[in-house]
Amino acid sequence: MIIIGLDPGLTCTGWGIVAKSGSRLSHVANGQIRTDAKAAMADRLVELDAALTDVILHHRPDAGAVEEVFVNVNPQSTLKLGQARGVAMLSLARAGMPVAEYSTKVVKKALVGTGGAEKSQIQAMLKVLLPGVKLAGEDASDALAVAITHANMLGSHR
């Protein structure tokens, strides 16, 4: 089974793809999608959707998971994040796959064992779980963590 995880953001959306075979996980790919900060909001959302669609068509995942929105101090940032997250969920659902959602705390707990883990701890655990992985950046790391969380949750529901 191929699983894609997304860490949505308007400026940068991370994506990470893992393959699950039994209880074994392996890295497939990861990357980041950046939108043009000078472009209109609608154009940025179209840009994000097109890039995500390309990733989905290239890797053909069976299932997807998206990190939930956390509320920022700045309401405008929260709204922009929510719009990017909506596009991410739409891209996955339109491709016909089931979409799961996980809070940041659940992802951190699933990977490191504590919901208060630091980003550096997540990245260190990714290197243990996916030996030799080259991380495309922080957002891609977070997305891989979401994909791994979903892979592990799939195993616990069967």
Automatic annotation (TrEMBL):
<dbReference type="GO" id="GO:0000287">
    <property type="term" value="F:magnesium ion binding"/>
</dbReference>
<comment type="similarity">
    <text>Belongs to the RuvC family.</text>
</comment>
<feature type="active site">
    <location>
        <position position="67"/>
    </location>
</feature>
<keyword id="KW-0233">DNA recombination</keyword>
<feature type="binding site">
    <location>
        <position position="67"/>
    </location>
    <ligand>
        <name>Mg(2+) 2</name>
    </ligand>
</feature>
<dbReference type="GO" id="GO:0003677">
    <property type="term" value="F:DNA binding"/>
</dbReference>
<keyword id="KW-0540">Nuclease</keyword>
<dbReference type="InterPro" id="IPR036397">
    <property type="entry name" value="RNaseH_sf"/>
</dbReference>
<dbReference type="InterPro" id="IPR002176">
    <property type="entry name" value="X-over_junc_endoDNase_RuvC"/>
</dbReference>
<dbReference type="InterPro" id="IPR012337">
    <property type="entry name" value="RNaseH-like_sf"/>
</dbReference>
<keyword id="KW-0378">Hydrolase</keyword>
<keyword id="KW-0479">Metal-binding</keyword>
<feature type="active site">
    <location>
        <position position="139"/>
    </location>
</feature>
<feature type="active site">
    <location>
        <position position="7"/>
    </location>
</feature>
<keyword id="KW-0255">Endonuclease</keyword>
<keyword id="KW-0460">Magnesium</keyword>
<feature type="binding site">
    <location>
        <position position="7"/>
    </location>
    <ligand>
        <name>Mg(2+) 1</name>
    </ligand>
</feature>
<dbReference type="GO" id="GO:0005737">
    <property type="term" value="C:cytoplasm"/>
</dbReference>
<dbReference type="GO" id="GO:0006310">
    <property type="term" value="P:DNA recombination"/>
</dbReference>
<comment type="subunit">
    <text>Homodimer which binds Holliday junction (HJ) DNA. The HJ becomes 2-fold symmetrical on binding to RuvC with unstacked arms; it has a different conformation from HJ DNA in complex with RuvA. In the full resolvosome a probable DNA-RuvA(4)-RuvB(12)-RuvC(2) complex forms which resolves the HJ.</text>
</comment>
<dbReference type="GO" id="GO:0008821">
    <property type="term" value="F:crossover junction DNA endonuclease activity"/>
</dbReference>
<keyword id="KW-0963">Cytoplasm</keyword>
<dbReference type="GO" id="GO:0009432">
    <property type="term" value="P:SOS response"/>
</dbReference>
<protein>
    <recommendedName>
        <fullName>Crossover junction endodeoxyribonuclease RuvC</fullName>
        <ecNumber>3.1.21.10</ecNumber>
    </recommendedName>
</protein>
<feature type="binding site">
    <location>
        <position position="139"/>
    </location>
    <ligand>
        <name>Mg(2+) 1</name>
    </ligand>
</feature>
<keyword id="KW-0234">DNA repair</keyword>
<dbReference type="GO" id="GO:0006281">
    <property type="term" value="P:DNA repair"/>
</dbReference>
<dbReference type="Pfam" id="PF02075">
    <property type="entry name" value="RuvC"/>
</dbReference>
<keyword id="KW-0227">DNA damage</keyword>
<dbReference type="InterPro" id="IPR020563">
    <property type="entry name" value="X-over_junc_endoDNase_Mg_BS"/>
</dbReference>
<comment type="function">
    <text>The RuvA-RuvB-RuvC complex processes Holliday junction (HJ) DNA during genetic recombination and DNA repair. Endonuclease that resolves HJ intermediates. Cleaves cruciform DNA by making single-stranded nicks across the HJ at symmetrical positions within the homologous arms, yielding a 5'-phosphate and a 3'-hydroxyl group; requires a central core of homology in the junction. The consensus cleavage sequence is 5'-(A/T)TT(C/G)-3'. Cleavage occurs on the 3'-side of the TT dinucleotide at the point of strand exchange.</text>
</comment>
<keyword id="KW-0238">DNA-binding</keyword>
<dbReference type="GO" id="GO:0048476">
    <property type="term" value="C:Holliday junction resolvase complex"/>
</dbReference>
